[in-house]
């Protein structure tokens, strides 16, 4: 007799056993398979690995000696053991919306976790409470908490609507910005915009331009320092080195390069490229050296079920791992394109391979966080994007520890190595020439000395010892 549909072999690596069993029993019902044949058909659709597993579970009995109910119950106990209720509810209540996770995905995750919590009649209330508290975003909380007689379904509908409205608003804002750009004339040399023609088109009829007096016009500012009381040729900062671009002749506050590049510990959108793409420039404080690998502060994090030693770096805007570590421990997480460029504070570019969404576990709590994959032999960094989610015990991290006693020889060697720091008398700055720049015509100003604190007054009044 011809059968309706086809049921593939069961493979535990591809499908949950309960889900497979539901589809298999529907197939049995549609094709009117009798009870006496169900066990035989079930053994046929088992994959070779799963069939060998079943034989091991029922030893010394044979599979043909068991009926269909006994076979499925044996595999169900193995693939889905009875969960610990308290632990399952703990995982449910610890689940929060992850960074980049949509509301729909968060709803689905909560429903899956709640399926093993045995909430019974309390299920809807538990889902509603956890859903509202676990959402990321003040707008969601403000809207949902103001709703009376809120149910889980109603909360889901409202949150999905808010998310959709937010996404559409961003698209509309982007369209408005593009429309605004139609009235601008682009300067081919520097990409600057001119609204001259739009300005003249929008003048009202009978408009006459009033010439501004010379005294009211703004004076041209010095491009070296930004001041308006001198010319750039007489600026005292003409030999000053810019801390932004490294060039000599201007200060950082007037550096034009800062408009195109995000400076240290700041993430911003870079200027649009000619092709119209936008990428984010992220600068890191960390400079990778052999000494740093020994002296840094490290935390043991669980990434995708694997233990990874990560260096704590509050100067890094993003968390990252090298390519070697990704291939060894995280290759099951699909690599996605990354729209960021990384550079150290020295200006060296760090090649980026991509980014992944990785499950993170630390001290019993779980998150799904963004992780950047880079080339080279670098240490794994725990940056600020993770620190916004993971709450560390900073008091314990920065506490003074003395795990190993320091020997007298070690102390003696250290004092000898840095003996210049422990000399009597005043120190001396070597290989450095100071320059005091004073503008011509500057008049001296008298500043009254600060009053001495009463507790130190007697010591100050004493005559200081003279050097022999």
Automatic annotation (TrEMBL):
Residues 192-219 have a biased composition (Polar residues). GO terms for molecular function: nucleic acid binding; zinc ion binding. Residues 176-190 have a biased composition (Basic and acidic residues). The keyword Metal-binding applies. It comes from the Eukaryota. InterPro entries: Peptidase_aspartic_dom_sf (IPR021109), Retrovirus_Pol_polyprotein (IPR050951), Znf_CCHC (IPR001878), Znf_CCHC_sf (IPR036875). This is CCHC-type domain-containing protein. It comes from Oncorhynchus kisutch.
């Amino acid at each position: 007799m011809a059968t309706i549909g086809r049921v593939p072999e069961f493979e535990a690596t591809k499908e949950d056993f309960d889900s497979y069993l539901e589809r298999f029993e529907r197939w049995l019902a549609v094709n009117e398979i009798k009870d006496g044949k169900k066990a035989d058909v079930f053994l046929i659709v088992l994959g070779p690995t799963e069939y060998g597993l079943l034989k091991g579970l029922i030893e010394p009995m044979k599979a043909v000696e068991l009926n269909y109910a006994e076979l499925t119950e044996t595999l169900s106990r193995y693939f889905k053991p009875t969960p610990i209720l308290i632990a399952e509810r703990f995982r449910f209540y610890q689940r929060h919306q992850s960074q980049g996770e949509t509301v729909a995905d968060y709803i689905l995750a909560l429903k899956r976790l709640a399926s093993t919590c045995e909430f019974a009649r309390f299920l809807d209330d538990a889902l509603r409470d956890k859903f509202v508290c676990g959402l990321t975003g003040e707008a969601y909380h403000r809207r949902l908490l103001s709703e009376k007689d809120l149910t889980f379904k109603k909360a889901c509908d409202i949150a999905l609507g808010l998310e959709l409205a937010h996404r559409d608003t961003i698209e509309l804002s982007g369209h408005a910005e593009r429309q605004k750009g139609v009235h601008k004339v682009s300067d081919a040399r520097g990409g600057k915009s001119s609204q001259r023609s739009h300005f003249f088109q929008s003048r009202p009829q009978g408009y006459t331009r009033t010439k501004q007096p010379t005294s009211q016009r703004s004076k041209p500012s010095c491009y070296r320092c930004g001041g308006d009381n001198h010319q750039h040729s007489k600026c005292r900062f003409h030999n000053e080195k810019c801390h932004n671009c490294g060039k000599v002749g201007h200060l950082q506050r007037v550096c034009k390069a800062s408009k195109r590049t995000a400076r240290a510990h700041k993430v911003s959108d870079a200027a649009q490229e000619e092709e119209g793409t936008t990428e984010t420039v992220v600068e890191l404080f960390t400079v990778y050296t052999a000494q740093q690998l020994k002296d840094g502060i490290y935390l043991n994090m669980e990434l995708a079920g694997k233990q990874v030693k990560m260096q704590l770096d509050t100067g890094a805007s993003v968390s990252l791992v090298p390519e070697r570590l990704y291939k060894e421990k995280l290759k099951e997480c699909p690599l996605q394109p990354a729209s960021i460029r990384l550079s150290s504070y020295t200006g060296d570019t760090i090649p980026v391979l991509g980014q992944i969404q990785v499950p993170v576990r630390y001290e019993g709590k779980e998150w799904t966080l963004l992780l950047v994959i880079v080339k080279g032999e670098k240490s794994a960094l725990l940056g600020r994007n993770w620190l916004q989610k993971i709450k560390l015990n900073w008091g314990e991290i920065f506490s003074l520890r003395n795990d190993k006693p320091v020997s007298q020889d070690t102390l003696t060697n250290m004092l000898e190595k840095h003996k210049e720091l422990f000399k009597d008398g005043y120190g001396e700055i070597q290989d450095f020439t100071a320059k005091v720049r004073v503008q011509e015509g500057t008049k001296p100003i008298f500043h009254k000395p600060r009053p001495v604190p009463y507790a130190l007054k007697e010591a100050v009044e004493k005559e200081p010892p003279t050097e022999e």
